[in-house]
């Protein structure tokens, strides 16, 4: 581990880190916090630089993490506490940031992960990074094959989205920047029927056969999908809700759908 120490906020490495934090450096992710950095260390993402405070080394878990990351990083640098506080994206900095390479997010990333019975998530216009991160975590937890994020959606690798996903961003295959029409066409070419959520739909989500290939489309938090968008899907479904509730958080809605798919697939597998 190098003994270099950063004492100035104008240090070039700090400038690079701030650019990554703010999304101006599009090749890097700003990974902050002990738990998230541990997830990065266990993942295949490339670690470029590690910035930490001396306080972190007084904790066994923190010291072990810095040592582990330093074996993979190009640079490992100590930062003065007050300087690190100016860099942090959280209210209570834990004293560690890793700058990691963003994973590839082209359509080809999904090709090798389209299994025999794919289960995809299409995030269309989801603007809240915390919600988007939570959706990635739900998708991985429920066994989704991959995620497609359309143009206009939030950056899935921003600091808030990374914290919401808590490691799933490093592992789950993601295609970003597609239009909804592109995503639907891509699925159609691979015989993956698309499913849109629509409060006007006549079929409840439990009535759909989820043991077949599926790509579920969810829209933005406030408006959801409009009629034109839902009409592009092969199936329209709704999640039943008791009045006066009319909608669910988008990550919660995704969890309801994917775990129903999970339940049906597990039941089919058990039946042999």
Write structural notes for this entry:
The structure is a single chain. This protein is an alpha/beta fold and 272 residues long. It contains 12 helices and 11 strands. It has helices at residues 12-21, 34-42, 54-57, 60-70, 81-87, 108-111, 129-141, 159-165, 168-171, 180-189, 227-231, 250-271, and strands at 5-6, 28-32, 47-52, 75-79, 96-101, 119-123, 146-150, 174-178, 194-197, 214-218, 235-237. The strands form 2 sheets. It has a 6-stranded parallel sheet, with helices on both faces. Strands 1-4-3-5-2 form a 5-stranded mixed sheet, with helices on both faces. Helix 7 links the parallel strand 6 and strand 7 (146-150). The longest helix is centred in the last third of the chain and has 22 residues, at 250-271. The chain starts with a strand and ends with a helix. The model has no long low-confidence stretch (mean pLDDT 94).
Brief summary:
By secondary structure, this protein is an alpha/beta fold. It contains twelve helices and eleven strands.
